[in-house]
Design brief:
The complex is a heterodimer. Chain A is of the alpha/beta class. Chain A has a single domain, classed as Aconitase, domain 4, CATH 3.20.19.10. Chain A is 32% helix and 16% strand. Chain A has helices spanning 23-26, 46-49, 87-94, 107-116, 125-137, 167-175, 179-185, 187-195, and strands spanning 8-11, 13-16, 72-75, 99-102, 119-122, 143-146, 151-154, 160-162. In chain A, strands 1-6-7-8 form a four-stranded antiparallel sheet, with helices on one face. Chain A has a four-stranded parallel sheet with strand order 2-3-4-5. In chain A, strand 7 (151-154) and strand 8 (160-162) form a beta hairpin. The two termini of chain A are 31 Å apart. By secondary structure, chain B is of the alpha/beta class. Chain B has two domains: 5-262, 2-Layer Sandwich (Aconitase, domain 3), CATH 3.30.499; 287-467, 2-Layer Sandwich (Aconitase, domain 3), CATH 3.30.499. Chain B is 33% helix and 16% strand. Chain B contains 17 helices and 18 strands. Chain B has helices at residues 5-11, 38-46, 77-93, 108-114, 146-155, 180-191, 206-210, 213-221, 237-243, 253-262, 314-324, 344-347, 350-360, 378-386, 389-395, 445-454, 460-467; strands at 14-17, 23-26, 29-32, 57-60, 96-98, 123-126, 140-143, 157-160, 164-171, 199-204, 230-232, 275-280, 287-289, 297-299, 339-342, 370-373, 421-424, 439-442. Chain B has a five-stranded parallel sheet with strand order 5-4-3-6-7, with helices on both faces. A four-stranded parallel sheet of chain B has the order 11-10-9-12. In chain B, strands 16-15-17-18 form a four-stranded parallel sheet, with helices on one face. In chain B, helix 3 (77-93) links the parallel strand 4 (57-60) and strand 5. The chains are: A alpha/beta, B alpha/beta. Chains A and B meet through helix 4, helix 6, helix 7 and helix 8 of A and helix 2, helix 3, helix 5, strand 8 and helix 10 of B.
C-alpha cells in the first residue's frame, strides 16, 4: 500500500502519557473483520475514545479540541505492545497521524509503522518527559520532526534530540517506497537461494 | 568462532545483507489465517504479482470461527466474509487451505506442528505475534504485519534487522502444580512486558530439557509477552520423536539429510549472548496475573504489590488496577470468578486438557461459573476422546467446544461480558481483550481448573495435595 513520502513534519501533538499501550487498545480485535483497509480511522483507540453508548469520552486527548488536527502522537514507554496486527499502524496513519514519538516501541508495531508510512521516533525518557510537559503547559506546542537530519525539536525552545533509523528505511520513508519494490528487483537471487534450501 | 543456535539459523537464511539496512531474510514456512491476510492478497493483486512459492504457505481458519455448530453457516456476516476470502484467496493462488470442518483445521500454531510443517532450523512467519510458538522446535519463528505477509507471498522474503540474542536459563526441578505456563508467566513477571524488546530469546537449562514439546510450545508462545520477537529451544530427541512420521515432515533420505542439519542446531560452548538471565525452578509457584499486561503476574498465593514497589509509572499501574477493580495489597486467592477459559495457542493442546482433567476429575464445576473449553484443533479433540477425557469433562459439568482462537481475543461470539472476571489460560490480559470491559486473570490450566470447581481463584496445589 503506497503512502505519502515523509521529509520534515512540524505539528502540534496528541499526548498519551500511558505506558505499555497495546495494539488491542489502538484497534480492538472486533474491528479486524474487514477484508479491505476501511474505517480504521473511526475505530482508532475505539474503547478509550468512546463510551459503550458511542458518545465520545471528553477527557481522552484524541477527542480534545485543543489538540485537534495534530499529526504527531507522543506516547508512553513501550508503545504498541502485543499483537502483530498491522491494522494498528493503519489506524494511526488513517486517523491522520504521520509520526509517533515514544521512549520505547514494541518491535512489531515499529516495523509495521515503517512499512505503512508512519515514522516511529524513539527519544530518551527525559526528552519524552520534556515533550509531555511542554504539551501540558501549552497544547499548541509545536514539534518538528526532521527525517533527513534525524532530529526532533521543540520549536519554541529549540531543544532537540537526534533519533536512529537505518539508512534503508529512511530512504524508503523519504521516497514513499516499500520493501516489495526492493525484493521484486532481486527475485533471481531469491529463487537461486530457495533452490538450495534443505526443505 | 562459537555461535548461538539463533545465529546459526538466522545466518543461514540471509539472502543478502542491505548495507546500512536490514537483511533480506528467507522464509521456509508461512502460515496465514483469515484476519491478517486479505489486505495482503489485495496488495499482491493490485501490483500484478503472483505467489512465488504456493507450497510454502499454509492457510487455516481460526481467529473468528465459531466454537459451536461449526457445521452450520457462520452467522456473523463479517466473519463469514473473511473466512470466504481466505478460502477464495488460497484456492486462487494454489495454497493449501484448512477451513472450518476440515480434519486438519485448528489454531494455526497448533496445527502447524501437528502436521509436521514446523521443523527445526526452519524460518517460520505468520501475521500473528504468537508465531513464536514454533520456536519450541528450534525454528526461528515470529509474527509479522500484513505488509510483510504480502512480501512473503510475492517474494518468500522479508526485510528484517537481526535482533539481539538473549539466553534465559532455568535450572532445577519444578514443584507440584507448576506448569510450563507458570514458568513463562514467572519469567515475564521478572522481565516485565517490555524487558526483552529487541531480543530473540533462547531458553536453556534443566526445566526446558525436561519439558514436553507441548510445554515448550507454551513457553515459546509467550515470548512476545515480554517484548521478545521470539523464543527458541534447541532441538533434541524429544523434538525428533514428536515430528517423526507427521504428514509433512521429510521422509527417508530427506529425513536423514535434514537430521544432519538439525544435529548442528545448538549453541556452542562459550558462545556469547547480548543478555543472559538465570532463574531457579524452585522459586516458581503456580502464577496468576492481576493487571492489564502479562508482566503483571505473581505467585497465586501472593498479594497484589503496591505501586511504589513495581517498576514503571505509578499512574499507569493505578490505571491498570482501577480497570481490574483491584487494590494494592489485595489477595487473589478467594476472589469470586465468573468465567473460565481453557484453550488458545498458548494452552489448547492435549497436555493442557490432561492437566485440567487431573483437577476436575470427580469434582463439579461451580454453578455460577461459565466455562469454555476450546481445544486447539480437531486432532486435539480426537485425542481428548481417545483418552476418555471427554467423559471426565462431561461428568464434571463442563462442555467441550469446537476448535478455534475463541475467547482469547473474542473475535467470535465467545466474549466475556463487561465487568466479568475470567480465569483464562490464554496469553493476554489487556483491557477488553476477551470482550469490551472484560477482566482477565491469566493462569495455567491447573489454576483454571481449580478455580472453575471452587468458583473462586484457587491454588491448584490444595486439590493436588488432597488427591495425593
Amino acid at each position: 500500500m503506497a503512502y505519502d513520502k515523509f521529509e520534515v513534519l512540524t505539528s502540534t501533538a496528541y499526548p498519551l502519557p500511558i505506558e505499555n499501550v497495546d495494539t488491542d487498545q489502538i484497534i480492538p480485535a472486533r474491528f479486524l473483520k474487514a477484508t479491505e483497509r476501511v474505517d480504521f480511522d473511526i475505530n482508532f483507540f475505539r474503547d478509550w475514545r468512546y463510551n459503550a453508548d458511542g458518545t465520545p469520552k471528553a477527557d481522552f486527548p484524541l477527542n480534545q479540541e485543543k489538540y485537534a488536527g495534530s499529526k504527531i502522537l507522543v506516547g508512553g514507554r513501550n508503545f504498541g505492545s502485543g499483537s502483530s496486527r498491522e491494522h494498528a499502524a493503519w489506524s494511526v496513519y488513517d486517523f491522520g497521524l504521520r509520526c509517533v514519538i515514544s521512549s520505547a516501541f514494541a518491535d512489531i508495531f515499529k516495523n509495521n509503522c515503517l512499512n505503512v508510512g508512519v515514522l516511529p521516533v524513539q527519544v530518551s525518557a527525559p526528552f519524552a518527559d520534556k515533550l509531555f510537559n511542554a504539551i501540558e503547559a501549552d497544547p499548541k506546542t509545536e514539534i518538528k520532526v526532521d527525517l533527513p537530519n534525524q532530529t526532533v525539536t521543540l520549536v519554541a525552545t529549540g531543544e532537540s534530540e537526534s533519533f536512529d533509523i537505518n539508512l534503508y528505511k529512511k530512504d524508503n520513508m523519504l521516497n514513499g517506497f516499500d520493501d516489495i519494490d526492493y525484493l521484486k528487483n532481486i527475485e533471481g537471487e531469491i529463487t537461486e537461494f530457495a533452490a538450495n534450501r534443505p526443505f | 568462532m562459537a555461535t548461538t543456535l539463533f545465529d546459526k539459523v538466522w545466518d543461514s537464511h540471509v539472502v543478502r545483507h542491505v548495507q546500512d539496512g536490514p537483511d533480506v531474510f528467507f522464509i521456509d514456512r508461512h502460515f496465514i489465517h483469515e484476519v491478517t491476510s486479505p489486505v495482503a492478497f489485495l496488495g499482491l493483486e493490485s501490483r500484478g504479482n503472483s505467489v512465488l512459492y504456493p507450497n510454502r504457505t499454509f492457510a487455516t481458519a481460526d481467529h473468528n470461527t465459531p466454537t459451536m455448530n461449526q457445521h452450520l453457516p457462520v452467522a456473523d456476516a463479517l466473519s463469514a466474509n473473511q473466512l470466504n476470502a481466505l478460502e477464495r484467496n488460497a484456492k486462487k493462488h494454489g495454497i493449501s487451505h484448512w477451513g472450518l470442518g476440515d480434519v486438519n483445521n485448528g489454531i494455526v500454531h497448533v496445527v502447524g506442528p501437528e502436521n509436521g510443517i514446523t521443523l527445526p532450523g526452519a524460518t517460520i512467519v505468520c501475521g500473528d505475534s504468537h508465531t513464536s510458538t514454533h520456536g519450541a522446535f528450534g525454528a526461528i519463528a515470529f509474527g509479522i504485519g500484513t505488509s510483510e505477509v504480502e512480501m512473503v507471498l510475492s517474494t518468500q522474503c522479508i526485510m528484517q534487522s537481526k535482533p539481539k540474542a538473549m539466553r534465559i536459563n532455568v535450572n532445577g526441578k519444578l514443584g507440584l502444580g507448576v506448569t510450563p505456563k507458570d514458568v513463562a508467566l514467572y519469567i515475564i513477571s521478572k522481565q516485565t512486558t517490555s524487558g526483552a524488546t529487541g531480543y530473540f530469546v533462547e531458553y536453556a537449562g534443566d526445566v526446558f530439557e525436561d519439558m514436553t514439546m507441548e510445554g515448550r510450545m507454551t513457553v515459546c508462545n509467550l515470548s512476545i509477552e515480554m517484548g521478545a520477537r521470539g523464543g527458541m529451544i534447541a532441538p533434541d530427541q524429544k523434538t525428533y520423536d514428536y515430528i517423526a512420521g507427521r504428514a509433512q515432515t521429510p521422509k527417508g533420505a530427506d529425513w536423514d539429510k535434514a537430521m544432519k542439519y538439525w544435529e548442528t542446531l545448538s549453541t556452542d560452548e562459550g558462545a556469547e549472548f547480548d543478555a543472559e538471565f538465570n532463574y531457579d525452578a524452585a522459586d516458581i509457584e503456580p502464577m496468576i496475573t492481576y493487571g492489564t499486561n502479562p508482566g503483571m503476574g505473581m505467585g497465586v498465593t501472593k498479594d497484589i504489590p503496591t505501586a511504589e514497589s513495581v517498576e514503571g509509572g505509578v499512574d499507569t499501574y493505578r490505571k491498570s488496577l482501577g480497570y481490574m477493580d483491584f487494590h494494592e495489597g489485595d489477595t487473589m486467592i478467594g476472589k469470586k470468578i465468573d468465567f473460565v477459559f481453557l484453550g488458545s495457542c498458548t494452552n489448547g493442546r492435549i497436555e493442557d486438557f490432561r492437566g485440567f482433567c487431573s483437577i476436575v476429575k470427580g469434582r463439579k464445576k461451580a454453578d455460577h461459573v461459565t466455562a469454555w473449553l476450546v481445544p486447539g484443533s480437531h486432532k486435539v479433540v480426537d485425542q481428548i476422546k481417545a483418552e476418555g477425557l471427554d467423559k471426565i469433562i462431561e461428568e464434571a459439568g463442563f462442555v467441550l467446544r469446537e476448535p478455534g482462537c475463541s475467547a482469547c481475543l473474542a473475535m467470535n461470539d465467545d466474549k466475556i461480558p463487561a465487568g466479568k472476571l475470567s480465569v483464562s489460560t490464554s496469553n493476554r490480559n489487556f483491557e477488553g481483550r476477551q470482550g469490551p470491559g472484560s477482566r482477565t486473570l491469566l493462569a495455567s490450566p491447573l489454576v483454571a481448573a481449580a478455580s472453575a470447581v471452587e468458583g473462586v481463584v484457587t491454588d491448584p496445589r490444595t486439590i493436588l495435595n488432597a488427591n495425593a
